[in-house]
């Protein structure tokens, strides 16, 4: 067994775990954060995406022990109480989700994409979310949602600055 | 036929009620639910396609610390019954199979043992310690192998590998073909692929040994049928089983079965503890249901002008190990037989259908359920015929379309089409893709050595199926309840699987009661709460789900008006329900809100002072809806009618083919679609986008590939290629609206159509792009290898045309 200390959504956890425990299972089973989903366990579908040390990571491809001392953001850390994050708002406004299984990860990949490129083209959006598989939407409305989220976030930033 | 409801919320892009849950990670899928004392299940699967089980040794697995129970097929067979047939139509052979195989395995992936342990990690470790001795048998993989005279038989007691035979004939096809100016005789194949929902199958079973009650959380599209089947299989009285279908991470038809779903229940019964099983992606692809996988020969006689005189079809489907018991997939072949005539006027028609079993995964439902099987061969062969006749793909379709003034239309094979304007859909799609400009561009680019192509497919999307002698039957139930506070709950047998009924059904109820969808809670997916209903499949939510919700709401509205009238001392006929209030038409100030009526009826002063005689003290009603056009008794020609609505569309694809690499790039994809009345246009668009992309993906990338020993070669997302955003353009949708006269809302459904017509549109576009090479495409997926070999074969064919 190994002991790790991780900060998830601003809360510090100290847990004793098996070295072979995947990060996604640690988040889901040890911390009861069920927003990271398991869709393939091969690092392809991206449903388990979380933000690890500021970068989107597929948490089925990491051991929990690799996250020792690291800060993690999961989808549970985005909304402020009942108020959705602008990316989440954009997804519901543009109907960018159906069954919702890929959605938390898609939202977090969008979070990273827009942090790096606040004004992406449609093609950059398509490339930016290509680590995440969605079987329901055909991506058309997800691309719209990401573009709408970019507008919202740029607006929020501009009003912060003024 | 039925009175159409008035619009208000219906027709608006009402934002989905369920979204905030999913967006914040609070969706609560089956795998997200934990129970005290819960164990984790894992299933050992056969590495052989066809083999006898000689022995199973579980000793080492049982000794592994943390393992609580190990089940073999033999032990499981003592605890439960074989899997009952879920579809049993004349001409079908049923089989005797178990959730866990005891004597013989019939596909790579069939369950042979199962473990319950303290963690999933330990359960999977234990699987590796189970020793199974097999005696291997010859693997039957292809249709030819299955039908060979000396073939081994999957089910020895049948004496054949033929699981289904069906034939139908109307008019005089032979005479029609004899009189034709041109007879096209082609055979096309459609490979095996499937829905691969992002959430695989999952079950959390909780059996109480003291009470004998089972609660099972199941990722399913049809919770009530799960309850009925589990009761039969597990020998538990049905009233002691509660099936809860929480959030469902995609279904697409792939979650309408009960076979591996039995195993976690058995493990829970064996241990007396809750057992969770959430399958891996490899299990989903190896052992979940598959679809397509058929060869269809079409012999069509044409007049010079393109008029179809007669159609002779021969369809052979490879249904894998099972299409009747584990899942109802085999019925898709019968549906195809009824719908090969599609949107065209055809009077002389003959069809023969054969379903054969093989050592591949079970055959289930997947977006299309045979309507796709009917569509691809016909739309493919029409393009081939148009070329031979020297007319355009547009002209050949326009020549044969059923016209908008001919509805309701009795199609030759049995179905009655409700409404539509097929020529208008085609015109709209041509306009959207800018057909004339594309043709000019094509000529210009060809001169520069680049190859773009445009392809069409007309499509019919029979929706709301009602299959006789099958668990996928033809009714649906809804209960509407007004709370003492005046809010409303709708309990529906329809399951939200991502298609959004939690919101769209609320829009229907809201309109009828003149309240907001905000005030309505839609409850589904719990057999202990909702009336017996049949779930979500066959795009039936719009026809069945919406209709019974509307009927139940109308009953409640009637009660509200009667009780309101009693309290207002006004006859109900002089009242109306408007803005959530019962008010006198003449004097609107004489009014009572639904909340006031509910409070008075249920609580203060209570029923003895509130109720007119003959009414029960509730604001509640249940309604069942059955279709006015379903006909199960065969007519004089032996025909049935099982689908209520017939949405329609024309698809158009624009592609560029790189003839050096064989790569197909999809440039644009448009669809002009007619789903009748749209309940929520945003949701409708989303359904169409998703279906289209699954069809495109089937045409270009997805294929479940088996080798000659029956091994699935690509059971992971690393090599079973589902598309990502960068592979695709935006899907462009336009709507035509021909309300269905057969449903009270006028809605038709639209869950599957996208996946039905898109393969033909893509393939037709690729063939159009490669026209200078003289390529004819008879199979998919159009991988670079296949495209290059098509070009090479065409070049080496006698009389090959030079490209340019």
Concise summary:
The complex is a heterodimer of chains A (162) and B (804). With 162 residues, chain A is α+β, with helices and mostly antiparallel strands.
Strand percent estimate of chain A? 15-25%
Question: Mind telling me which CATH architecture of the largest domain in chain A this is?
Answer: Roll
Radius of gyration of chain A: 16 Å
Q: Strand tally of chain B, please?
A: 30
- Which consecutive residue ranges of chain A, at least 5 long each, have pLDDT under 50? none
Kindly identify the CATH topology of the largest domain in chain A. Ubiquitin-like (UB roll)
Helical percentage of chain A: 25-40%
How much of the polypeptide of chain B forms β-strand, as a percent range? 15-25%
Helix run count of chain A: 5
CATH H-level superfamily title of the largest domain in chain A: Beta-grasp domain
Specify the biggest β-sheet of chain A: 5 strands, mixed
Walkthrough of the structure:
The complex is a heterodimer of chains A (162) and B (804). By secondary structure, chain A is an alpha+beta fold. Chain A has helices at residues 23-30, 86-93, 103-116, 122-128, 140-161; strands spanning 2-8, 11-17, 49-52, 55-58, 71-73. In chain A, a hairpin with a 2-residue loop joins strand 3 (49-52) and strand 4 (55-58). The longest helix of chain A has 22 residues, at 140-161. Chain B is an alpha+beta fold. The termini of chain B are far apart. The relative contact order of chain B is 0.13. In chain B, the strands form eight sheets. Chain B has a seven-stranded mixed sheet, sandwiched between helices. Among the domains of chain B are: 19-25 and 475-626, 2-Layer Sandwich (Aldehyde Oxidoreductase, domain 4), CATH 3.30.365; 138-400, Aldehyde oxidase/xanthine dehydrogenase, molybdopterin binding domain (Aldehyde Oxidoreductase, domain 4, 2-Layer Sandwich). In chain B, helix 10 (331-339) packs parallel to helix 11, helix 11 (371-389) packs across helix 12 (393-400) and helix 15 runs parallel beside helix 16 (541-568). Chains A and B meet through helix 1, helix 2, helix 3, helix 4 and helix 5 of A and helix 1 and helix 19 of B.
